[in-house]
Amino acid sequence: MGWWLKGRVWMTMTIISFVQAKDLVFDWRVTYGKLSPVGPPQTVILINGQIPGPEIHSVTNDNLIINVHNDTDEPFLLSWNGVQLRKNSYQDGVYGTSCPIPPGKNYTYALQVKDQIGSFFYFPSLAVHKASGGFGAIRILSRPRIPVPFPEPAGDFTFLIGDWYFDHDHKSLKAILDKGRMVPLPDTVLINGNGVTFNTSFTVYKGKTYRFRISNVGLQHSLNFEILGHTLKLVEVEGTHTVQSMLTSLDIHVGQSYSVLVTMDQTPRNYSIVVSTRFSNKQLFVGSTLHYYNSKGSDFVPRKQPANELDFSIKQARSIRTNLTASGPRPNPQGSYHYGRIKISRTLILENSGTLVNNKQRYAINGVSFVPADTPLKLADYFKIKGVFKVGSIPDKPRIGGIRLDTAVMGAQHKEFIEIVFQNRDNIVQSYHLDGYNFWVVGLNKGTWSHASRQEYNLKDAVSRSTTQVYPQSWTAVYVALDNVGMWNLRSELWARQYLGQQFYLRVYSPIQSLRDEYPLPKNALLCGRASNKKKLNTTH
Ligand SMILES: *[C@@H]1O[C@H](CO)[C@@H](O)[C@H](O)[C@H]1NC(C)=O
Ligand SMILES: *[C@@H]1O[C@H](CO)[C@@H](O)[C@H](O)[C@H]1NC(C)=O
Ligand SMILES: *[C@@H]1O[C@H](CO)[C@@H](O)[C@H](O)[C@H]1NC(C)=O
Ligand SMILES: *[C@@H]1O[C@H](CO)[C@@H](O)[C@H](O)[C@H]1NC(C)=O
Ligand SMILES: CC(=O)N[C@H]1CO[C@H](CO)[C@@H](O)[C@@H]1O
C-alpha cells in the first residue's frame, strides 16, 4: 500500500531494498483487568488481554497499521519509544501531537519503521497509565540482504523490565501527583509483567548462543541485568550495532533498550537471571530462571556486583561504542556519516530542577515546568490556531530563579546540527528521551560541564540512541542532526517528573512546508480542544 509515501520516496526505498515494505496490521483492545503480577490481584491495563501487550516483529521500512480501541473509561494514547517516525510526528501518540482516544473510541496509527533496526517498546503516554501496564516490545529486524554483525542466535528473548507498585494503581498515583505531592518509590520489579521470583523461566540448550533484548519500561529506577555464571556480549543499543564487548552485568536506565548475546557455556543446570535496582535507597530485585535443557539441579553462583556502582556505571557507559564497520539499516558502514566533523550551529544546556510552586511539587527544565495546553500543539500548528503555545517559551540555557509554569516549546530550524548538554545537579540518575531522533552520546562525566569538557568528547564512534542517562551531579552531552521536521517531545523518562513538568517540545520547523519534509495531517486524525471544529485539508488517504 504505502499510501503516505509519494513518488520519489517510494522509488528510492524500492531501489535500495529490492523488497517492498510490508504492511503489518494489528487490532488492539485496551482494557482494565485484574492480574496478580506479584501475588495479590491488582487493577492493570491490558492490551488484547495481556501484559506485556502484543510484541511487534517488523522489518526495516515496514508499515505498522495499529487500530487501538480504547475500552477503558479514560482518554488513552500509545507512544513508540525510539521509533523515529520520519516526517510524521502526528503518529507520535503524545498529548503534544495527538488528541487522546476517547473512552469507547478507536484510532488507527499508521507509522513506518523507516531506516531503523533494533529493539524498542511502546507504552501508554497519558497520565500515569504506564504504572499499570499497557506496554509491549517492538523489534525491527534487518532486511534479508543486509549483513548483521553476528551469527543468527539460536533464540531471541524479550525482557521488558521495570519497577512497579503493588500498593498503588495508575489512578491513585495520579491523584497524589495532582495534589502536588511526590509519589513514593515503587515497591518491586517486574520481568515481562511478572514480579514473582523464579516464576518465569527461559529454556536454553548448552553450547548455543541466545539474544536477550532488554528494555527498561519502568517509572523511576535504573536497573541492573545479570545472568549469574554467564557473561553478556553487548551487540545493540537502540538501533546501533555496538563494538561487541563482554560485560558481567549491564545497567539499563529508564526508557533504554539493549541487546546482548549470551553463550550457554556452563554445566547444564539452572542459573539465576537477576534484575535489581541501582542508585536507590530501595534494594529491589526479581529473579528469573535460566534453565538448561536436560539440566540436573541448580547452581549457586554468587553475584558479581561492583563495590562502587556509580564508577562502574560511568565506566560501562563510556565503553559503549558504535561498531563503525557494521551496517545499520543499510548496507553502508555505520561510520560512513562523520558526525564529529559537522559544525555545531547551536548549544542547548538543559538543567533539571524541582521545587514547590504554589505549594505543589513541580519539576522543570531550565526553570520552566511544562503544562499541557487545551489543544495538541501539533494541531494548533497545523490549523494555525493562535495562543495555544509560544515558540521560545523555554530558554536555551538555565536561568537563575524559581520555576514558572508554561506550555514550553523550543524552536529549531530543520537541518540544524546541535549540541545538547544535560546538566544534572540532583542526587538521582536522570534519563532523557527525545522523540523523532537518535542522538550521539559524545560525552558524560561527573561535575559541571564547561567548554573544556568538549576536549573529552568521543567524536569518532559514540553510540547513536534516543535515551540517555545523566548521573547524579553530572553531565551528559549529545549531538543531534535535526533532520526530522515535526513537534517532538523531549522528556525526563522518570515518569512522575515528566508528569509534573519535566519535559518540553522541540518544534523542528522548515519554512518551505513541503510534503517532502513532512507528511500531512492523517485523514483519520482525531480532533479536540480548539481544533475540534476544524476541517481537515490536504490530508492523506
Ligand atoms: C476505528 O475502527 C474501524 C474498524 O473497526 C475503522 O474502520 C476506523 O477507521 C477506525 N477509526 C479510526 C479513527 O482510526
Ligand atoms: C564489527 O562489525 C564487523 C562487520 O560485521 C564484524 O565483522 C566485527 O566482528 C565487529 N567488531 C566488533 C569488535 O564488534
Ligand atoms: C507462578 O506462575 C504461574 C503461571 O505460570 C501461576 O499460576 C502462579 O500463580 C504463579 N505463582 C505465584 C506465586 O504468583
Ligand atoms: C529448574 O528450572 C525449571 C524451570 O523453571 C524448573 O521446572 C525446575 O524445577 C528447576 N530445577 C531445579 C532443581 O530447581
Ligand atoms: C467504560 C467505558 O467507557 N467503556 C466503553 C469502552 O469502549 C467500548 C467500545 O469500544 C464500549 O462498549 C464501553 O462502554
TrEMBL record:
Keyword Cell division: no
Pfam families: Cu-oxidase (PF00394), Cu-oxidase_2 (PF07731), Cu-oxidase_3 (PF07732)
InterPro entries on file: Cu-oxidase-like_N, Cu-oxidase_2nd, Cu-oxidase_C, Cu-oxidase_fam, Cupredoxin
Alphabetic keyword roster: Glycoprotein, Signal
A Gene Ontology molecular function term of the record: oxidoreductase activity
Domain Plastocyanin-like: 30-143, 156-285, 374-511
Signal peptide (from-to): 1-21
Family: Belongs to the multicopper oxidase family.
Name of the protein in its database record: Uncharacterized protein
